């Protein structure tokens, strides 16, 4: 199993445990999301893939000397099944699924992503609202020594959709203009993007 080491600073390191993919053949789309680990403290996992990937995810965490109980935050960029399939593994974590923040049966009423509020997890990690693909999408911004990474879920499908809007539109968009606006916001903000269904890419310099 080969994981992609991305970034390290004094407090946290980020690794893509599994790069996402999506391919269409006939009337079947084969797809799974990118799954990213930020190892701190705090320990965060972003998007937990499908319900059939639990054993793979546990083994991947072992390579980083982690157990599911060591994860502090599970962040799912949105609620589609390929992004939330193994949330149940992380019983000790606070779960952020789209605009919802919960732990066990308690849901936070004090934070409102719908009004644009960002959720600060640590000095280096924050969750920002980026709706469009769904109306409750979020992205994770990781600051690695002033190099900014965005883990965006399906706000960006893959690098190719920078040149071909049809890729992200055909993947489904609840609000194309809102998604377009948030894509531009993220492109202006960060240096690297981990998209929902492709390898990480560097934001083109204009």
TrEMBL record:
Name of protein: Metallo-beta-lactamase domain-containing protein 1
Major location (coarse): cytoplasm
Taxonomic lineage of the native organism: Eukaryota, Metazoa, Ecdysozoa, Arthropoda, Hexapoda
Domain of life: Eukaryota
GO CC, one annotated term: cytosol
GO biological process: RNA 3'-end processing
CDD domains associated with the record: MBLAC1-like_MBL-fold
Enzymatic reactions: a ribonucleotidyl-ribonucleotide-RNA + H2O = a 3'-end ribonucleotide-RNA + a 5'-end 5'-phospho-ribonucleoside-RNA + H(+)
Domain Metallo-beta-lactamase: 32-197
Role noted for this protein: Endoribonuclease that catalyzes the hydrolysis of histone-coding pre-mRNA 3'-end. Involved in histone pre-mRNA processing during the S-phase of the cell cycle, which is required for entering/progressing through S-phase. Cleaves histone pre-mRNA at a major and a minor cleavage site after the 5'-ACCCA-3' and the 5'-ACCCACA-3' sequence, respectively, and located downstream of the stem-loop. May require the presence of the HDE element located at the histone pre-RNA 3'-end to avoid non-specific cleavage.
Record field: transmembrane: none
Location in or out of the cell: Cytoplasm, Cytosol
Subunit annotation: Homodimer.
InterPro entries: MBLAC1, Metallo-B-lactamas, RibonucZ/Hydroxyglut_hydro
Pfam families per UniProt: Lactamase_B
């Amino acid at each position: 199993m080969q994981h992609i080491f991305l970034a390290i600073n004094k407090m946290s390191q980020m690794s893509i445990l599994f790069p996402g993919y999506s391919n269409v053949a006939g009337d079947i789309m084969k797809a799974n999301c990118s799954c990213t680990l930020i190892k701190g403290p705090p320990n965060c996992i972003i998007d937990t893939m499908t319900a059939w990937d639990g054993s793979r995810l546990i083994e991947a965490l072992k390579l980083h000397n982690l157990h599911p109980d060591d994860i502090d935050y599970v962040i799912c960029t949105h609620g589609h099944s390929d992004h939330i399939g193994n949330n149940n593994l992380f019983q000790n974590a606070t779960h952020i699924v789209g605009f919802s923040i919960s732990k066990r049966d308690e849901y936070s009423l004090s934070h409102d992503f719908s009004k644009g509020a960002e959720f600060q997890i640590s000095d280096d990690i924050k969750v920002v609202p980026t709706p469009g693909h769904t109306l409750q999408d979020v992205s994770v911004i990781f600051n690695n020594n002033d190099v900014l990474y965005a883990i965006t879920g399906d706000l960006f499908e893959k690098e190719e959709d920078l040149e071909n809007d049809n890729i992200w539109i055909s993947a489904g968009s609840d609000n194309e203009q809102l998604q377009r606006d948030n894509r531009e916001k993220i492109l202006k903000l960060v240096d690297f993007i981990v998209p929902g269904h492709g390898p990480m890419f560097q934001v083109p310099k204009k």
